Amino acid sequence: MTDELPQPMVSAEWLEEHLHEPGLSILDASWYLPAQGRDAEEEYEAGHIPGAVFFDQDLVVEPGSDLPHTLPSPRHFAQHVGSMGVAVHDRIVVYDGPGFFTAPRVWWMLRTMGAKNVAVLSGGADGWKAEGRPVTKEPTKVAPCLFETDFDENAVVSLDEMKAVAGSGDAVIVDARPAGRFTGEEPEPREGMKSGHIPGSRNVPTTSLSKDGALKDEAALASLFEDAGVQKDRPVITSCGSGVTAAALLLALEQAGYENVRLYDGSWSEWGSRPETDVETGPARAGG
Fold it and tell me: What is the pLDDT of residue 2?
């Protein structure tokens, strides 16, 4: 048995081989938009990977926030994750339904809170089930533990910092939302949101990062980001609708060799709801 997980993705073969080893925590981090017509918790209860615990992305948030997925404080995060039986030094595998959609958000949260040995399951639960791998309806027995956080404040970009950066060229802002929402041609799924994007942003939709639930290889990702105008020699900030799929962008950027990448946690739910924020519509500006 090796102590280190393959990074940043693990295969279904690897996970099945190591399923019952001590020190391995598995988290089902599935979450869906209403338009997708899927219920993450219901699917978990109908059949999940043995040993997996459901990570509710609508619950593990900062209490009292007016935003849907605000990163909780280290104390609140530790309470939630510790109650799931996850320790900071565990080998932690995170998965979602499609394979590369919302699992990276929990991967990012865990890393931001101090976990080092975290990976995402390639192919997700959909791929796992399609291949006939084991699933169970049995509730996972959990032994609550202490999750000792080591919070990386620099990983999280605030609204004030985004106001200073937007349109300045000091960093490349990359938006994971679909193209229609980025340009403002399609409405936002949440009421009260402006349409468009943060000034100077580039658009790399989450759906372009993977194929059949598996992250594309380093060369393909590098080409994708370069074509979108995301330069490796500049700081990069990722954004999306509510901070969830921005983490998928961040993981893909790191895999493509980008080193200075951070996440705007408020994302469009924050920027698009504030009366004082500037908005652009249409395609990304060349050189923006």
Answer: 45
